[in-house]
Specification:
60s Ribosomal Protein L30, Chain: A, alpha+beta, Phosphoribosyl-aminoimidazole Synthetase, Chain A, domain 2, 4-stranded mixed sheet, 342 residues, 2 domains, 8 helices
């Protein structure tokens, strides 16, 4: 990996950082061997990529910023390494595509170039291997804050990409997994960061989320999703984006939401599982729609991940939440928004 952003007067420090990065990369065995489509990877000025015959290339990039998306002194470096690749890969998954390789741009202070960086790369390696998505190259530089940018290259069969814009009135709305689990873990970590065990299962979705790759590929293969996206900012913020792209509205049934299970000892903290399910971010579950004639073909689980019908698409361009008593109310956008004034 190379660095063009550091001034010439600091070339010695720059070279030392790049050299250290290379040594740690070698020790942790980040998956960097070229696959059949990746003809040239790390070690040259740029990667050489060729999609397989009959496939289209899917491209995405994602920021992961210290102080905004994670706290370097609270979140384990291994979790940060895992999550930065999973976040970006989830966008590829949400189009019914397969992540194939990625580029890493990393800026960090010199105090994070030792043990912290080695643990970060260990998490990145695990995610790379789990997704079978090797690193193709990138860039490094020094900065006062940790800045991570991931670009993922993916593939899908030509004409099979699932867009946000295909939903039609009468389609059923489904989600994978349980919603609000990542928000639950975040709240626990925020309350007692020094006392939490990173292996606590309540934190797993927040620290080590899993993109729903098998579900996305299955839906694309069988042509059952009319529209799809991943839930990164929360259902209340992401569903309107799908509806806007498709020029439709939606109704969500509150009692149908597959909510996070709040542990008994946490109920006194007044955690609201349904509020987490509606507005919690970082779940990286799939939100998709299916035409009326195909609803019966959607299984209850895909690859051991539950699939739940939570509502329907409407022709009226509003998003409504229906209570257990049948009361309609507008679903307010209360999910993650980096530009919202707090």
């Amino acid at each position: 990996m190379k660095n063009r952003a550091t001034p010439r007067t600091k070339v010695k420090e720059e070279d030392a950082l790049v050299e250290q990065f290379g040594r740690i990369q070698s020790r942790t065995n980040v998956a960097s061997s070229p696959n059949k489509s990746l003809h040239v990877a790390i070690g040259d000025d740029a990667a050489v990529w060729q999609p397989r015959a009959g496939h289209e290339t899917i491209l995405t990039c994602d920021w992961f910023l210290g102080g905004t998306h994670f706290l370097a002194d609270t979140h384990p470096p291994e979790s940060i390494g895992w999550k930065c690749l999973v976040r970006a890969s989830s966008d590829v998954t949400a189009m019914g595509a397969q992540p194939r390789c990625f580029l890493l741009s990393l800026a960090l202070p010199s105090t994070r170039t030792g043990a912290w960086l080695e643990q970060f790369l260990r998490g990145l390696k695990r995610a790379s291997q789990a997704l079978q998505c090797p690193i193709a190259g990138g860039d490094t530089t020094r900065q006062n804050e940790i800045l991570i940018n991931i670009t993922v290259v993916g593939e899908c069969k030509r004409g099979r990409a699932i867009l946000r814009s295909g939903a039609r009135a009468g389609d059923a709305i489904f989600v994978t997994g349980r919603l609000g689990e990542a928000e639950y873990g975040l709240r626990l970590l925020q309350r007692a960061p020094k006392r939490m065990d990173i292996h606590d299962q309540r934190l797993r979705k927040h620290l080590f989320p899993e993109p729903r790759l098998a579900a996305g590929l299955w839906l694309a293969k069988h042509g059952l999703a009319t529209a799809m996206m991943d839930l990164s900012d929360g259902l209340s913020s992401d569903l309107p984006r799908l509806c806007n792209a498709s020029a439709v509205g939606a109704r969500i049934h509150r009692e149908l939401l597959p909510c996070v299970a709040i542990a008994g000892r946490d109920r006194l903290k007044r955690f609201d599982a349904r509020e987490f399910a509606l507005h919690g971010g970082d779940d990286y579950e799939l939100l998709f729609t299916t035409g009326p004639k195909d609803v019966a073909r959607i299984p209850k689980t895909i690859g051991r991940v539950p699939v739940t019908r939570v509502g329907e698409i409407t022709s009226q361009k509003n998003i409504l939440l229906i209570s257990e008593r049948g009361i309609y109310e507008a679903l307010k956008k209360k999910g993650w928004d980096p530009f919202r004034r707090t």
